[in-house]
């Protein structure tokens, strides 16, 4: 019994503020003397302020709840202690409400990646964690994560909500396909998209009571060429069971509800775009190169762009996006209006947040790794970064590779060297470089002639082979062309 009491007392001392603060470093200079550290939790937040910010007998560590009144008390206590900057870990979404209140109070918020502090030994309690954050932040050893301005954050929330609505609508389409398959109606095999005009018209007619395949085939759109009318008529013969028709009806209603929700979200996105503040950025002294490496002479040619089908937007927001960005990003190979919206909602408009284009590509996770030990490269794989912009650029890379453009030629060349995944990453990095330069320097995109690009690569390859032949004691002789 006595051993249990001693163990309990030690545990209480460990979690109490009087359990011993972290010893300050002897030689490190204090960069942020008015810094605080907050350990974020779903139920309570532990806060540590500098020791000289409180009275002698008071503790510099306090725990606050997660309710709104508790967050107000936390902010008031930090203001009383003279705190000007706060470091906190990006734990789920629990930090968002507190960060917004701190920013409204004029306190700088440094959002720290929890992965950077995960492997610190001996500091696994909430109390020690907030003390460690405060000490590291006071020495200026913490790097804040990227967080756009409030107007861009509002746009980002709407775009992510729209993405979730799209995923839910896709699941509703799958439920319709399953109900049709159980009735042995192969409509989803006879048309390209069940949620297209032909598919939805036929589904609505089936739910209205129409069972005659010939009548249903008459609802086929003129542009539907995947199957012949005879094949479509054969696909619309099935076992019309009541329970499967009920499932089909509810799935169709769910899809229509989600489609209406997406339209409402698009209208809210349009209103939010009108409130985006355009930053006044002074252009750099040295302009960015208009053409990518390997290009000599631009050619006036319409750039490859994916079709508007699939964007899902009810209104063309291209002019509005061009006004906000100062440049038409849809001219970049592979990007449409929806893609530009996703990029704008994730990275914002201020490219000065990254020190260079290389830092921007590294933030996206599109740069090779540099895992080196003992002078030997152990791995050069790209780091596992979950970034919606990088996911988008990798997704459009295969379509870019099928285009008759200089970037399509680059994708095909990288595919031969690195494989499909490596080519997608390399092409995504090229697109990221173009986006960075266009947003930073506000220059129009100029497409490059593919033949000029390939001719430049041919000269580089020929120069390299000639140099290797000279080192081996050979001389290259051009073979005359036949004919």
Instruction: Count up the helices.
Output: 16
The rough form would be described as: globular
Strand order of the largest sheet: 3-2-1-4-5
Measure the end-to-end span: 103 Å
What's the gyration radius in Å? 30 Å
Approximate helicity band: 40-55%
State which percent range the strand residues make up. Answer: 5-15%
The H-and-E topology, N to C, reads as: HEEEHEHEHHHHHHHHHHEEHHH
Strand-pairing-aware structural class: alpha/beta
| Uncertain parts | 4-18, 287-310
Largest sheet, in brief, is:
5 strands, mixed
> What would the average pLDDT be, to the nearest integer?
84
Count of beta strands:
7
Explained architecture:
By secondary structure, this protein is an alpha/beta fold. 50% of the residues lie in helices and 7% in strands. The protein has 16 helices and seven strands. Strands 3-2-1-4-5 form a five-stranded mixed sheet. It has a two-stranded antiparallel sheet with strand order 6-7. Helix 5 (150-182) crosses helix 12, helix 13 (357-364) crosses helix 15 (406-441) and helix 14 (388-401) runs antiparallel to helix 15 (406-441). It is globular, with a radius of gyration of 30 Å. It starts with a helix and ends in a 12-residue tail after the last helix. Mean pLDDT is 84; it is low at 4-18 and 287-310.
């Amino acid at each position: 019994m006595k051993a249990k009491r001693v163990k309990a007392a030690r545990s209480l001392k460990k979690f109490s503020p009087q359990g011993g603060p972290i010893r300050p470093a002897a030689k490190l200079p204090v960069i942020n003397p008015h810094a605080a550290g907050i350990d974020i939790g779903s139920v309570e937040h532990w806060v540590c302020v500098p020791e000289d910010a409180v009275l002698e007998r008071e503790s510099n560590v306090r725990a606050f709840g997660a309710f709104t009144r508790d967050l107000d008390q936390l902010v008031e206590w930090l203001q009383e202690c003279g705190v000007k900057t706060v470091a906190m870990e990006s734990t789920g979404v629990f930090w968002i409400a507190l960060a917004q209140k701190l920013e409204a109070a004029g306190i700088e918020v440094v959002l720290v990646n929890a992965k950077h502090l995960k492997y610190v030994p001996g500091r696994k309690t909430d109390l020690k964690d907030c003390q460690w954050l405060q000490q590291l932040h006071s020495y200026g050893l913490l790097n804040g994560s990227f967080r756009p301005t409030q107007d861009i954050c509002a746009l980002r929330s709407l775009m992510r909500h729209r993405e979730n609505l799209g995923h839910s609508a896709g699941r509703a389409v799958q439920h319709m396909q399953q109900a049709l398959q159980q009735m042995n109606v192969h409509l989803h095999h006879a048309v390209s998209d069940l949620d297209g005009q032909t598919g939805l018209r036929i589904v609505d007619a089936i739910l209205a009571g129409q069972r005659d395949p010939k009548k249903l085939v008459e609802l086929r759109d003129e542009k539907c060429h995947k199957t012949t009318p005879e094949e479509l008529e054969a696909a619309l013969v099935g076992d019309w069971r009541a329970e499967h028709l009920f499932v089909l009806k509810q799935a169709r209603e769910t899809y229509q509800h989600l489609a209406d929700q997406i339209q409402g979200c698009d209208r809210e996105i349009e209103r939010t775009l009108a409130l985006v503040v355009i930053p006044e950025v002074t252009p750099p002294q040295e302009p960015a190169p208009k053409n990518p490496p390997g290009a000599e002479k631009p050619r006036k040619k319409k750039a490859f762009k994916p079709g508007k089908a699939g964007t899902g937007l009810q209104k063309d927001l291209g002019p509005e996006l061009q006004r906000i960005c100062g440049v038409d990003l849809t001219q970049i190979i592979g990007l449409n209006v929806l893609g530009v919206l996703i990029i704008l909602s994730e990275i914002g408009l201020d490219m000065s947040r990254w020190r260079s284009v290389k830092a921007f590509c590294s933030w996206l996770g599109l740069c090779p790794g540099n895992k080196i030990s003992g002078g030997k490269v152990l791995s050069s794989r790209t780091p596992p970064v979950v970034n919606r912009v990088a996911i988008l650029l990798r997704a459009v890379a295969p379509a870019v590779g099928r285009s008759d453009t200089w970037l399509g030629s680059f994708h095909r060349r990288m595919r031969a060297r690195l494989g499909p995944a490596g080519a997608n990453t390399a092409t995504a990095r090229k697109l990221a470089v173009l986006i960075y330069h266009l947003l930073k320097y506000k220059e129009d995109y100029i497409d490059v002639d593919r033949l000029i690009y390939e001719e430049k690569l041919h000269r580089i390859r020929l120069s390299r082979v000639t140099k290797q032949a000279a080192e081996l004691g050979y001389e290259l002789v051009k073979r005359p062309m036949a004919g």
